[in-house]
Design brief:
alpha/beta; Adenylosuccinate Synthetase, subunit A, domain 2; 3 domains; ten-stranded mixed beta sheet; three-stranded antiparallel beta sheet; 19 strands; binds guanosine-5'-diphosphate; binds 6-O-phosphoryl inosine monophosphate; binds magnesium ion
């Protein structure tokens, strides 16, 4: 009975939502372990498009339990809006969804704090999603945060809210920021959120433990990507949570001994949203062609994603951190129009070749990528159902990525829909899916 982690191997938006939705057919529970409504996971079921932000993508499968783990930060307003959309689509949200009593809560003063740190003079903006994610995690680590268990506790919530609010207003005053908000109304609104969410809040670590005892299988759904991880990413241009595989344990309370496999999702090229170093970024017309072909615009903010070429050293690094058993290469079809495809196979820093990922963004900005150029296949791969049915040059491209990254390519995605996927026969991934 294997439990697996599915997570982003690059800077997010690799197509995790599509793959989690597809794989969740074989699982009983899908659990999110970090992040918040900064994530945007797109799933197409036929013509219908869903964008999941906080709720695990597995909710789209009837009977699959969806768990928001303790490592997630929850904006209850955003959660209820997402729940309402899914309910309208006929999904049994109340039956399928459970939320950790230890997950931290995002309040309207969190995006306010974020605006101060992002827009303050002399500060380098991270280019965040402005959802209050970072400040909510700051409160968690500073041990003053409010958790779901506090939100639903009428005897304590009001005092905790007032104390945390007083902190924030003191900071705003110090920075001469005028705050015009009816905070009593916010507190009341959160009480109504609490009443609606109370039945769904529980000890999800215990729930997951029980599920495993009953022989149920869990899929852990990562948000963001390894290069946005607070520890291993391109700090400070990262998100504030543990997006890499280790986060699945701390973010759900499931021990490492219960995890049987880790699957990395990577595009056939690479993208990034927001600021920060990006060694293989394709500027100008080249980048624009990929952006248009791949519809590379943020699912949450609508921002154009920065686009570039597949980066082998980066994949090596994210494999080191996560121990990928298998890779899913998504959006192969987006490269269909190219006659030549550059792949970064090494880094040069100050003229010297290196395999090491620099720890600082300053170091990363000094990287000169070393490229090899592979021939494009220049025909459609969209929806091709088998690996053998792909054009020879596309197969060679995938074999090349497999050989260079030293991780099997167990699955190829060649279109946004469930059916536009090739799971390779005999792969480790096929075995892990069971
Ligand atoms: P996530 O955050 O990792 O779930 O990815 P996003 O949903 O933010 O972005 C991935 C985008 O690519 C979505 O619009 C998907 O519908 C789309 N997508 C996923 N896989 C494929 C694929 O193989 N080909 C194409 N053309 N689009 C894909
Ligand atoms: P999914 O799960 C891509 C980026 C933001 C910004 C940085 C910090 O859809 O792959 P934050 O609001 O988290 O403090 O912003 O992280 N970012 C993402 N980029 N995909 C995501 O999620 C992202 N979530 C955050 O653009 O650069
Ligand atoms: Mg996304």
């Amino acid at each position: 009975m294997s439990n697996i982690i599915v997570l982003g191997a690059q800077w997010g938006d690799e197509g995790k939502g599509k793959m989690v939705d597809l794989f969740s057919e074989k699982f009983d529970v899908v659990a999110r372990y970090q992040g918040g409504h900064n994530a945007g996971h797109t799933v197409y079921i036929g013509e219908t498009k869903y964008v999941l932000k906080l709720i695990p993508s597995g909710i789209l499968r009837p009977g699959v339990s969806a768990v928001i783990g303790n490592g997630v930060v929850v904006d209850p307003g955003a959660l209820l809006a997402e729940m309402a959309t899914l309910e309208t689509a006929g999904i049994a949200v109340d039956a399928q969804l459970r939320i950790s009593n230890r997950a931290h809560v995002i309040f309207p003063f969190h995006p306010l704090m974020e605006k101060m740190s992002e827009a303050r003079e002399g500060r380098t903006a991270i280019g965040t999603t402005s959802r209050g994610i970072g400040p909510a995690y700051e409160d968690k680590i500073a041990r003053r945060g409010i958790r779901m268990a506090d939100l639903i506790d009428p005897a304590y919530f009001d005092d905790m809210f007032e104390a945390l609010l007083a902190d924030k207003l003191t900071i705003a005053k110090a920075f001469h920021i005028a705050v015009d908000q009816d905070w009593a109304a916010v507190r009341k609104l959160y009480q109504t959120y609490a009443n609606r969410l109370r039945p769904l809040v529980c000890d999800t670590a215990e729930l997951l433990s029980q599920s495993m005892k009953e022989g149920k299988r869990i899929l852990f759904e990562g948000a963001q990507g390894t290069m946005l991880d607070i520890d291993h990413g391109t700090y400070p241009f990262v998100t504030s949570s543990s997006a890499s595989a280790g986060g699945a344990c701390t973010g759900t309370g499931v021990p490492p001994t219960k995890i049987n496999g880790v699957i990395g999702i990577s595009k056939a090229y690479i993208t990034r949203v927001g600021g920060g170093p990006f060694p293989t970024e394709a500027h100008g017309e080249e980048g624009e062609r990929i952006r248009q072909a791949g519809k590379e615009f943020g699912a949450v903010t609508g921002r154009p994603r920065r686009c570039g070429w597949f980066d082998v050293p980066l994949l090596h690094f994210t494999t080191t951190v996560n121990g990928f058993d298998s890779l899913v290469i998504t959006k192969l079809d987006v490269l269909d129009m190219l006659t030549e495809i550059p792949v970064c196979v090494g880094y040069k820093v100050d003229g010297k070749e290196t395999l090491e990922m620099p720890a600082t963004f300053r170091g990363m900005e000094r990287i000169e990528p070393v490229y090899e150029v592979l021939p494009g296949w220049h025909c459609s791969t969209k929806g091709t159902p088998t690996f053998d049915g792909l054009p020879d040059k596309a197969k060679k491209y995938l074999d090349y990525l497999e050989q260079k990254t030293a991780v099997e390519v167990g699955c190829v995605s060649n279109g946004p829909e469930r059916t536009e996927t090739i799971i390779r026969k005999g792969s480790k991934l096929e075995k892990l899916l069971g």
